TrEMBL record:
PANTHER family: FLAGELLAR MOTOR SWITCH PROTEIN FLIM, YOP PROTEINS TRANSLOCATION PROTEIN Q
Compartment annotation: Bacterial flagellum basal body; Cell membrane
Similarity comment: Belongs to the FliM family.
The protein, known as: Flagellar motor switch protein FliM
Keyword line: Bacterial flagellum, Cell membrane, Cell projection, Chemotaxis, Cilium, Flagellar rotation, Flagellum, Membrane
Main localization, broad class: other
Species annotation: Halobacillus kuroshimensis
Sequence ranges assigned to domain Flagellar motor switch protein FliN-like C-terminal in this UniProt record: 256-323
Annotated Gene3D superfamilies: CheC-like, SpoA-like
Pfam family, one: FliMN_C
Membrane topology: Peripheral membrane protein
CDD domains: FliM
InterPro entries (alphabetical): CheC-like_sf (IPR028976), Flag_FliM (IPR001689), FliN-like_C (IPR001543), SpoA-like_sf (IPR036429)
Length: 333
C-alpha cells in the first residue's frame, strides 16, 4: 500500500484535533487494526496485469498502422485507424456492447488455440464495400440482407488484412491467421463461455467521411500460452539475449570495406570577391592561406581527418600522413 505524506499544516491540524478531543487516538488505533475489505467481482475477473495490457496495446498500435496502410492502398481514400482502448471484460459483456447486426470475422491463429473475433461496425464495413465497388465511400446500413457477392467481397477484404495481424505479432509469436467464418448476428456466435475473460481492443476507424469502430476480441485461452511473453521483462531479456551473427558481421564488414571514399589533399584556401574572380587572367597568382611551414590537411568526404605533407613516390605525386586531425591543433598561420 502506498504511504501518504502529510504536509506540515495537516500534521498541525491533526495534533490540534487530538488535543481538543475532536478525534480519539484509541478509535484511530482500532481502525488501523480492522481488516481492509476490497470488493471483488468474480464475473469480471482481471486475468491480465497492467503490464500485459500495455504490451497488447503496443502490438495493436503497430497493427493499426499496418491496417491504415493496407486499407489506404485497397480503398484509395483517406483512412485513419488508431487504438482507442484496450480492456479486459467478460465475453458476454462484449457481445452485449456491439450492435445486434454487425460484421463479424472469426479467424484462428495457429499454433495458438482458440479463435479471435474481428468485429467491424456496419457503417465502416459498408463504406469499405462502397469504395471497392467504385463508389464514394458512403455508408448504407443493410447488414441484415447482405448479398452473396457483398459477403464474398467483404470477407476477402478482411481476410487479406490478416497478413498485417501476423506481422504485428511477429515480435512475440509466429502465427498464421486464417479466416474461418463470416457472421452478421452475434447471438449465433458462441466462441467461449459467457464469463470467459477476453481482451477487447477498440480501434477508432475513419474511412473517407465515415467513422466507426473496429473491435478485436481475444479470449484468454488464446493468449494463455504466451502470457509470460507479454511482460516488459521478456522484451528486455529478448533484446539483451540477441547475439551478433558472425556471418552477418562479416558480410557487413566486407560491404563497408568495399565502399569508396572521396579523399582530398587541401593545398590551401583563398577568399576573393566575385569581381576579383571575374577579372582573373592567365599568369595571375592566387595567394593561399596555407603556410609552407605548417602541415596540410587531408579531407575524407569533406571531413578533415589527417595532417599530411606533400611528396613524391617514384614518378607520382603523393602525401605522407603525419598525424590525426585535431580541432585547434596545427592550424596556426
Amino acid at each position: 500500500m502506498a504511504e501518504e505524506v502529510l504536509s506540515q499544516n495537516e500534521i498541525d491540524s491533526l495534533l490540534s484535533a487530538l488535543s481538543s478531543g475532536e478525534m480519539d487516538a484509541e478509535e484511530l488505533k482500532k481502525e488501523e487494526k480492522e481488516k481492509k475489505v476490497r470488493v471483488y467481482d468474480f464475473k469480471r475477473a482481471l486475468r491480465f496485469s497492467k503490464d500485459q495490457v500495455r504490451s497488447l496495446s503496443r502490438i495493436h498500435e503497430n497493427f493499426s498502422r499496418l491496417l491504415t496502410t493496407y486499407f489506404s492502398a485497397q480503398l484509395r481514400t483517406y483512412v485513419d485507424i488508431q487504438v482507442a482502448s484496450v480492456d479486459q471484460l467478460p465475453y458476454e459483456e462484449f457481445i452485449r456492447s456491439i450492435p445486434a447486426m454487425t460484421i463479424l470475422n472469426i479467424f484462428s491463429v495457429p499454433p495458438l488455440e482458440g479463435r479471435i473475433l474481428l468485429e467491424a461496425n456496419p457503417n465502416v464495413a459498408y463504406a469499405m464495400l462502397d469504395r471497392v465497388l467504385g463508389g464514394r465511400g458512403s455508408s448504407v446500413n443493410k447488414v441484415d440482407n447482405l448479398t452473396e457477392i457483398e459477403t464474398t467481397i467483404m470477407s476477402h477484404l478482411f481476410e487479406r488484412a490478416l497478413e498485417n495481424y501476423q506481422e504485428a505479432w511477429g515480435s512475440i509469436v509466429d502465427i498464421d491467421p486464417m479466416l474461418e467464418d463470416f457472421e452478421v448476428n452475434p447471438q449465433f456466435l458462441q466462441m467461449v463461455s459467457p464469463n470467459e475473460t477476453v481482451i477487447v481492443v477498440s480501434l477508432n476507424t475513419t474511412i473517407g467521411e465515415t467513422s466507426g469502430m473496429i473491435n478485436v476480441c481475444i479470449p484468454h485461452v488464446v493468449l494463455e500460452p504466451i502470457i509470460p511473453k507479454l511482460s516488459v521483462h521478456y522484451w528486455m531479456q529478448k533484446e539483451q539475449s540477441k547475439e551478433r551473427n558472425p556471418e552477418d558481421f562479416e558480410a557487413i564488414s566486407r560491404t563497408i570495406q568495399g565502399a569508396e571514399l572521396n579523399v582530398l589533399a587541401v593545398l590551401g584556401e583563398a577568399d576573393m570577391s566575385i569581381e576579383q574572380f571575374l577579372n582573373l587572367d592567365e599568369n595571375d597568382v592566387i595567394r593561399l592561406d596555407q603556410s609552407i611551414e605548417h602541415p596540410m590537411i587531408m579531407k575524407v568526404d569533406d571531413e578533415p581527418k589527417f595532417y599530411i605533407q606533400p611528396g613524391q613516390v617514384k614518378s607520382k605525386m603523393a602525401v605522407q600522413i603525419l598525424d590525426e586531425f585535431t580541432k585547434g591543433g596545427g592550424e596556426d598561420e
